[in-house]
Amino acid sequence: MKYALIGCGRIATNHIKAAVNNQLKIAAVCDILPEAMESLLAKHALEQEESISRYTDYIQMLDEIRPELVSIATESGIHAQIALACIERGIHVIIEKPMAMSMEDADKIIRRSEEKRVKVCACHQNRFNVAVQKMRTALEAGRFGQLSHGSIHVRWNRNEGYYTQAPWRGTWAQDGGCLMNQCIHGIDLLRWMMGDEVEEVYGTTRQQFHDYLEAEDVGVAVVKFKNGTIGTIEGTTNVYPKNLEETLYLFGEKGTVKIGGTSTNNIDVWDFADETEADAANKNLKEVTSNVYGNGHTSLFADMMDAIQNDRKPYVDAVAGRNALEMILAIYKSQKTGMPVKLPLTDFSSTDMKGTF
């Protein structure tokens, strides 16, 4: 399967690694900075591969290379326009989070991909974490019984050095704040586990320590789900001196699970009323990861390739990407209005937050 990557920055190494692991034919890479392309390829010992073309113009690349699958790893603010360019050409696409910065763009990606019969995968790779999959399997088997509530805590550190690496970081047009960038994976997991259907979101955000940004560095929210459960969200980049945890809790009448580690990659608590011998292996499970992005990209790419080959929806489809975006934009809108926000949300964008701080 012919593959191309658009965007060769911080997360791109996980995309190239996943492409290599899945034996994709890497036909091209694209970035406005030639040195970014060369650095990325050299990191994976691909700099001598003559079959890999380099482009600084993604439209030219799409039209000349005609890849079957593209992954988008640029700054967030242009994810949607690149995705739509791929979709209009019938090219399947994996979109790094967030899939868009506005509900209008997210809905357009879904609509046009359905009309063009193109597969779109939202890159929420943490759904493939071993610990997360164990939780999901127990949930689908009904082992929790009736759910009570759940929560996600993303307690990380991002200092000024991180933000100065790329001028788009922390801007409303191209990035958003800690909820949109760092916490979206955890928010995706919470919504997915709690039943997806959300009634109302009430949130508040602040900019405490990063006054050189436009957006927030801490946010908290309460989520009312239509099934009667409650969720809470806490996300921040203000933890001193380094990343502390990304922790997902799920509480039911017959089960409690806490997934912890730096990025929801460990099982800290695994208690069920119907405990079996097999549960012993899940207690204190730890998945070794090389960075906070985890190991899920390879599995996500494999699933997307299978979805294309067998004409089915990817495990993490465009609707999943929209749902995660909607949660964050609802928190932003709640901060702006001071009021709870009813879902579905149809007309809000990160840029509506300009001037908040």
Features:
single chain, 357 residues, alpha/beta, Rossmann fold, Dihydrodipicolinate Reductase, domain 2, eight-stranded mixed sheet, 11 helices, 14 strands
Query: Number of DSSP helices?
Result: 11
Number of domains: 2
Helix content: 25-40%
Low-confidence residue ranges: none
Which structural class should the secondary elements be placed in?
Answer: alpha/beta
CATH topology tier name of the largest domain: Dihydrodipicolinate Reductase, domain 2
Percent of residues in beta strands: 15-25%
Number of strands: 14
- Let me know the CATH homologous superfamily of the largest domain: Dihydrodipicolinate Reductase, domain 2
Shape: globular
CATH architecture of the largest domain: 2-Layer Sandwich
User: What does the oligomeric state look like here?
Assistant: single chain
Question: What is the mean predicted local confidence, pLDDT?
Answer: 97
Question: What summary fits the major beta sheet?
Answer: 8 strands, mixed
